[in-house]
Amino acid sequence: SGMHLSKKCSVFKVVLSALLIVALLQLIYLSFLSRFHGKQQRYRYSELFGGSAAKKNAHPEKNTRKERLRYSLSSGGIFDNSGQYRVYKNLIKSDFTTNQKPGSHSNSDILTLATHTTINNLHHLESLLERWQNPLSVAIFAHGEDVKFATALVYALSFFCPQIQALVDFHLVCLSGETASFPEQDREHFAGLEDCTSVFSRLETHRDKYQNYAMSGNISYPNNLLRNVARGGTESSYILVIDIDMMPSADLHQQFLAMILRRAPAVDEVFVLPAFEIRHARKIPSTKAELVQLYQVGEVRPFYEELCPRCQAPTNYSQWVNSHVRETGTLDVAYTLNWVDPWEPFYIGPRTVPLYDENFKQYGFNRISQACELHVAGFRFSVLSSAFVVHRGFKIHGEFHAKKEEENKQNRILFRSFKEGLKTKYPSSTRRC
């Protein structure tokens, strides 16, 4: 039995040493892998930010991209009219904008989508661009630590994502006391970034730190300044301004182009896209037929239906839902309306429409002030037959940031004086709002 025991022991020893060898090999392999991955990361990093390790001529066009970013940062940006904000216009330009000859107009240049966000909602850009697939201008507001993070991630997006590189212009707005700088020594922002997907994953993890309007450190989100910056960043004849968590119907760019070639728009006409909101888990509809189906079962409803039904009611949803679309893919004007208070339509407008009033920040009256000015300036609102925008998620009471009511009150007072100001700005207009 002693012999039996020692046999058992030696078998045990053999198994144990085999296991140890396997473990050792695994460790060696893992350390090799991490060294290799580290090397790859360092290469990726040096590729992004130059330095001795980068092969200088590996990506000449990427190097000029880097030089362009350095150049736009070195300008130090410009102050807005109030002197409270610093604006880096065209922090990063798309290939589309860079290759544009002044005064030349291509078809893609007819209509640009302009949008605005903080870094927290920038992850929406991925699906927005996938749907839009045409020139896009994004104004980003960042504050504090996020200024560095925004600069770094916007650069990484334009570096790793071919479609963004091709079509998206980025503008950065921060407080006037802050400056953006080239993210040279910022390894922590870039660790693990190796392709477009990984940059969006990084943005995802950043997403819900706070809502756009609930900024940390009691900072105002300058939505109208951002809208103007995004709008001013484009040479297009027409501009669609929407929030970044909204999605236009599919093929809108091409359908709009076909429509204005068919019927020349009047100079005083803007084209309204009826606005809806959809339950969070739902896939965003592409066509009017898909939208109407979801609308009929309550999965989609008019935008702001619970919070301010009057703000969108003038669109006349029942008329729109029932209006006949000539044939799929053809865009027409379904009907034309005059503006009535308190309508806040989303629309495609010529680049000549009045700018947004930048005194409005945070929550309340920021878009209605501009719609009301369009009305006083003599514009009419033509509702498009089959195009629309959809906001992701139902807007419900109680999910807003704490100071919303107070901001609304301040902006209501501001709106009164804004309306008075319009009388002097448009003395010959009989329209009021």
Automatic annotation (TrEMBL):
Pfam families: Glyco_transf_49 (PF13896). It is found in: Golgi apparatus membrane. It comes from the Eukaryota. One of its GO terms (cellular component) is Golgi membrane. Its cofactor is Mn(2+). GO terms for biological process: protein O-linked glycosylation via mannose. It is a single-pass type II membrane protein. Pathway: Protein modification; protein glycosylation. The chain crosses the membrane at residues 12-32. Keywords: Glycoprotein, Glycosyltransferase, Golgi apparatus, Manganese, Membrane, Metal-binding, Signal-anchor, Transferase, Transmembrane, Transmembrane helix. One of its GO terms (molecular function) is metal ion binding. It catalyses: 3-O-[beta-D-Xyl-(1->4)-Rib-ol-P-Rib-ol-P-3-beta-D-GalNAc-(1->3)-beta-D-GlcNAc-(1->4)-(O-6-P-alpha-D-Man)]-Thr-[protein] + UDP-alpha-D-glucuronate = 3-O-[beta-D-GlcA-(1->3)-beta-D-Xyl-(1->4)-Rib-ol-P-Rib-ol-P-3-beta-D-GalNAc-(1->3)-beta-D-GlcNAc-(1->4)-(O-6-P-alpha-D-Man)]-Thr-[protein] + UDP + H(+). The keyword Membrane applies. Belongs to the glycosyltransferase 49 family. This is Beta-1,4-glucuronyltransferase 1. It comes from Poecilia formosa (Amazon molly).
